[in-house]
Amino acid sequence: MNTTNPNNQNAIKEFSRFSKDYNSYNQIQAQVAKQLINKLPSRNYKIIADIGCGTGALYDRLVSREIFFGRLVALDASEQMLLLHPSDQRVVTQYFDFNEPGSFSSIKDKFDLVLSSSALQWSRDLGWTISQLAHIGDNFYGAIFTSNTFKTLHETASVASPIYTPEEIKKAFDKSYKNTQYEIYRYKLYFDSKKDLFNYIKKSGVSGGEQKLSYKQTKTLMREFPLDYLEFEVVFIEASN
Ligand SMILES: C[S@@+](CC[C@H](N)C(=O)[O-])C[C@H]1O[C@@H](n2cnc3c(N)ncnc32)[C@H](O)[C@@H]1O
User: Fold this and answer.
1) Cα–Cα distance for residue pair 228/205, rounded to 1 Å
2) Checking phi first, is residue 23 left (phi over 0); if not, alpha (psi -120 to 50) or beta?
3) Ligand 1 within 6 A of 166 CB?
4) CB distance 117 to 72 below 8 Å
5) Residue 92's pLDDT is what?
6) What is the mean pLDDT of each run of 10 residues along the chain (241 residues)?
7) Across-strand partners of 94?
8) Which residues of 87-110 are buried (b: 16+ CB within 10 A; e: fewer)?
9) Is 175:237 a contact under the CB 8 Å cutoff?
10) Closest residue by Cα to residue 149 from 191, 194, 204
11) Does ligand 1 lie within 6 Å of residue 56's CB atom?
12) What residue segments make up the domains of the chain, in order of their start?
């Protein structure tokens, strides 16, 4: 069964004005991690994988929601991120690149839950990455930013989004899992000034950065960008075999 819940198509979370305080640059990802963990149907897992774990947002949410797990394998392609992951007797951190066959063959476990939040938009070949994830566990819960993130910004600059469309994401999961469910959430992050807004894009690391604009193009974009907020769109996926 492949369904999209129409009631959630337009769920928009509006954030109060962007503030410069602690962790502001991860405000959206933190919210996404929280919503993802809130969707888990069970309070008890033997062994969980966290793909693109970063500094442990999912671990933090699992602990604060008091979801029990015997072991959590936290996987990331950045050694610096892995070093910042909280340590716990139940946690193993491991270098892992979801674009590399060698990373998948180094995984010897079969997970009862595979999680991934705000990371898989950077897969080079999403269909392939998802097919590999389906081999390491039958149950996947994840959240992926879509190409509608920064939609108006991309339209104003006449550039294409570097990340996958919601349709491409759904196609990748439908190919590798028997049961899939999708929900689209949209978020808005408000700024006091265009300068703050453009600084956020630079510092947040969510822009993809493939198509760098020249100084002149950036100036024009800052002048013409019509919004005082940034748009984010995330597809939440539940998939099982
Ligand atoms: C935006 S962060 C999200 C981190 C965390 N999951 C969260 O929800 O806060 C994206 C993470 O994906 C990791 N990442 C990017 N490309 C990757 C790859 N090819 N293989 C594994 N991890 C990758 C980055 O190192 C980073 O830690």
Assistant:
1) 19
2) left
3) no
4) no
5) 96
6) 37 47 68 96 96 96 96 95 94 96 94 97 96 97 95 87 94 98 94 85 57 72 87 96 95
7) 75
8) eeebbebeebbbeeeebbeebeee
9) no
10) 204
11) no
12) 2-151+160-186+232-240
Q: pTM, whole model, 2 decimals?
A: 0.89
| Token representation of residue 151 | 């939609």
Phi, psi of 93 (to 5 degrees): -100, 145
Would you state the pLDDT for residue 204? 61
> Could you give the residue ranges of the DSSP H alpha helices within the chain?
27-38, 57-64, 79-84, 101-105, 126-136, 151-157, 166-176, 194-204, 215-224
Q: Residue 211: what pLDDT?
A: 55
pLDDT at 4: 36
User: What's the 98 CA to ligand 1 centre distance in angstroms?
Assistant: 10
Q: Is the CB of 54 under 6 A from ligand 1?
A: yes
Q: Whose CA is nearest to atom 20 of ligand 1?
A: 97
Bridge-based pairing state of the strands 179-190 and 229-240: antiparallel
Task: Give the pLDDT score at 208.
Answer: 47
CB 78 less than 6 A from any atom of ligand 1: yes
CATH code for the domain defined by 2-151+160-186+232-240: 3.40.50.150
The whole-angstrom separation of Cα 156 and Cα 178 is 39
**Structure token digits, residue 129:** 């990455």
Instruction: Confirm if 44 and 50 have CB atoms less than 8 A apart.
Output: no
